[in-house]
Write a structure and sequence with these properties.
The protein is built from 7 helices and 6 strands. It is of the alpha/beta class.
Amino acid sequence: MQTTSFLNSTLYFHEPITSVDVFRPWMLLEVPTVPTLPPTLLPEPSYQSRSKHSDSLFWCVFSIHHDVLEETKAVELQEKMAAVKWLTENKKGSRLQKYTAELMSSPKTTWGGLYLLCLYYKVNVRVIPEGRNLYMDFVGSEEDQRLVKIVRETSFRVVGYVDDDSNKISQDFRETKPMRGIGHYKVDDLKVLAAKLGVTDKKKKQEWYDAVYLALTW
């Protein structure tokens, strides 16, 4: 008399188990491969103020961080007050205090105010005047290396991430003047700057300097 094994009785086999092949239908013979999905591409940020009279530079940075448009004076004031409170609690320095005052008192966001907003929202932006070969960077996050481009025409608008602006001239928003005194430059230096800015046909050093200075003025 054949004794039924535990496996036979448990799996309800009606024939004796003579080979491991009997279990093959239930065996995981290969590790299934998970299909590799393409990386999710972040949407290109874009924003243009609905009103020419609003603080369009503020709303550009707001839209980059929140990805939503709530262009009301109440929201603007609330966000600026929150930014000032956060900066007061977390940052120190007389220059930052000056920028904080600018953010709350100026009807339009200043460069200093923009820098504080970038710190608060932890975003990096590059501002470029339309049709001109220069830019200013405002870095609010060292961890996120992406730069969002904001173009200034009659107002400001967000146009997407920065690809390459290596041929443009970088300016520091903290400098009160776009250039140092004329004595710090050679004529050839001024000509190199002039070529990038589209300035031509000058003769004297003072003419080159004045033309470049004007082209670098925001």
